[in-house]
């Protein structure tokens, strides 16, 4: 392709940031991640991109940026069902390149996620670990609406963009250290960011109280309810926090099946 990540940034410093998150927040960290995401989409000839921070010690997962609604939904699905190539890229610290999500092997590997993501019209997913100091900080997630492998140059660009995001995130060492200590990736980008799941984690705490379970189990029950009902987790969380919804006594949240 003849492009490098550095060249792309130099030639297009004013490239628009999709979805409005970076500009609205006025945050240099999120704005920088947004620019890299837009560059990654262009250099890999994909249709969308997202970056998520994860915690190795808990199920906390924070979406930093998404270029479009589909990228945001792909990330949310993995958060809700607890499976998918992006989670595997994080756990194994290796790229996960899946050029055909409709393939039988993919549905066997991730049955819940694959059925949902194919229904969205996503046919290929390429996930690259975002490197940190000894272990991944998160994942760069790319998707296409058509099946097909990345070329060697496109794969190299994906890895370079993931590395660039890692350097950008690690430039804020203090916030990352606090986030790791408290197992709260949301501290890196701020609870008021467009993509923050702070409301989800607040709601999971309320669910834990409602069901008399641990905080971790409260989040699991919230995710189970969202999957069972097909509702976006952000909408359900808003209803719980506003006390319009309680999961107490709800079989679709696992109630009545043991704490």
Describe the structure in brief.
The protein has 259 residues and is α+β, with helices and mostly antiparallel strands.
Which keywords apply here?
alpha+beta, five-stranded antiparallel beta sheet, Beta-Lactamase, 5 strands, 13 helices, globular, 259 residues, single chain, 53% helix
Description:
With 259 residues, the protein is α+β, with helices and mostly antiparallel strands. The protein folds into two domains: 5-189, GAF domain (Beta-Lactamase); 198-253. 53% of the residues lie in helices and 12% in strands. It contains 13 helices and five strands. Strand 4 and strand 5 (138-144) form a beta hairpin. The chain is globular, with a radius of gyration of 18 Å.
SSE layout:
Elements: H1 5-11, H2 21-25, H3 28-44, E1 48-54, E2 61-66, H4 69-81, H5 85-92, E3 96-98, H6 104-109, H7 111-119, E4 124-130, E5 138-144, H8 152-170, H9 173-182, H10 186-189, H11 198-211, H12 215-229, H13 233-241
Antiparallel strand pairs: 1-2, 1-5, 3-4, 4-5
Reading off the top of the CATH hierarchy, the class of the largest domain is best stated as Alpha Beta
Q: How large is the share of residues in beta strands?
A: 5-15%
Number of helices: 13
Q: Helix amount, in percent?
A: 40-55%
Alpha-carbon distance between the two ends:
54 Å
In the predicted model, the low-confidence regions spanning at least 5 consecutive residues are 10-26, 177-182
Q: Please indicate the count of domains.
A: 2
Number of strands: 5
**CATH topology label of the largest domain:** Beta-Lactamase
- Largest sheet, strands/sense/barrel: 5 strands, antiparallel
Tell me the overall shape.
globular
Q: What's the CATH architecture name of the largest domain? A: 2-Layer Sandwich
């Amino acid at each position: 392709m003849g492009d490098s990540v550095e060249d792309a940034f130099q030639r297009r410093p004013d490239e628009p940031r999709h979805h409005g998150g970076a500009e609205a927040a006025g945050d240099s960290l999120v704005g920088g991640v947004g620019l890299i995401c837009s560059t990654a989409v262009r250099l890999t000839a994909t249709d969308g991109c997202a970056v998520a921070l994860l915690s190795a010690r808990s199920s906390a997962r924070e979406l930093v940026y998404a270029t479009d609604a589909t990228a945001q939904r792909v990330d949310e699905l993995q958060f809700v069902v607890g499976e998918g190539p992006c989670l595997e890229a994080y756990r194994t610290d290796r790229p996960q390149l899946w050029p055909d999500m409709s393939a039988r092997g993919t549905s066997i590997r991730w049955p819940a996620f694959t059925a949902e993501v194919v229904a969205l019209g996503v046919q290929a997913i390429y996930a690259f670990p975002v490197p940190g100091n000894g272990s991944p900080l998160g994942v760069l997630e790319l998707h296409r609406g058509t099946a097909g492998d990345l070329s060697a140059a496109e794969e190299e660009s994906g890895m370079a963009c993931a590395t660039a995001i890692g350097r950008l995130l690690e430039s804020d060492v203090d916030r990352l250290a606090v986030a790791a200590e408290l197992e709260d990736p949301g501290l890196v980008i701020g609870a008021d960011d467009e993509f923050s799941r702070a409301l989800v984690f607040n709601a999971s705490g309320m669910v834990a109280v409602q069901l008399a379970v641990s905080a971790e189990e409260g989040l699991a029950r919230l995710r189970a309810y969202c999957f069972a009902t097909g509702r976006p987790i952000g909408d359900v969380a808003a209803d719980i926090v506003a006390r319009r919804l309680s999961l107490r006594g709800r079989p679709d949240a696992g109630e009545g099946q043991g704490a």
